[in-house]
Amino acid sequence: MNELSLHILDICQNSIKANASLIQIIIEENTFLNQYKIIIKDNGYGMNKKTLSSVADPFFTTRLTRKVGLGISLFKMAAEMTEGSFVIESEENIGTVITAYFSHNHIDRAPLGDIEETMSILILNEKGIDIYYEHNYNDKTFIFDTREIKKVLEDIPLTDYSVIMWIKNNIKNGIENIQKEESN
User: Fold this and answer.
1) Measuring CA to CA, how many Å separate 176 from each of 137, 169, 170?
2) In terms of CB atoms within 10 Å, which end of the chain has fewer, N or C?
């Protein structure tokens, strides 16, 4: 995958299949320390120790429709190619936390890509799941939380076209603003 947002989407789809009601996505960029970290946390079913020990193997999958599961193994490989690392923790009936560490300025680190499109896909496909997205850039933070938006919108669904367009613009502008403030 040539964008980190696609890895995030793939991992979040695993969270959805694990019956998560809340998915938290946190990106921490620290250009001073040359660090780029992505954390994806859910409150889904979690995994037992046997599944957890095999989940990064590309030839392991819990799906019955195919014999390979490349999502987690590709995300792990993307992190390790940048002199980073990858950690997955999970507990049954609690949830799963995936943390990928990258070198921020490494030539092989893929760009974040279209994260606003990733968020809109998750919102459009899964009405019952809340998404918390936090993006930290050095000492600036942008937060997007569907729970807060639902309170403001009351009876207007998040899947309404104008709401989705606002969400995409809000996320894009929020990230641009925290990154722009740093360069001034």
Assistant:
1) 10, 10, 10
2) C
At 14, phi and psi to the nearest 5?
-65, -40
CB 114, CB 7: distance < 8 Å: no
Are 3 and 16 in contact, with CB atoms under 8 Å apart?
no
Contact 129, 22 (CB under 8 A): yes
Model confidence pLDDT, tens digit, residues 29-75: 999 999 999 999 999 999 888 777 766 555 545 544 443 346 788 89
Task: Give the domain ranges of the chain.
Answer: 4-183
* Side-chain half-sphere exposure of 172, counting CA atoms within 13 A: 12
Q: Are 86 and 76 contacting, i.e. CB atoms less than 8 angstroms apart?
A: yes
* Alpha-carbon distances, residue 131 vs 37, 60, 64, 148, 153 (angstroms): 18, 27, 27, 10, 16
Give the pLDDT score at 150.
92
Identify the helix (H) or strand (E) that includes residue 35. Answer: strand 35-42
Q: What is the pTM of this model?
A: 0.89
Supply 147's token pair.
């729970």
Q: Which CATH superfamily is domain 4-183 in?
A: Histidine kinase-like ATPase, C-terminal domain (3.30.565.10)
> How far is Cα 157 from Cα 110, in angstroms, rounded to an integer?
33
Q: What does the pLDDT look like over 92-124, one tens digit per residue?
A: 999 999 999 999 999 999 999 999 999 999 999
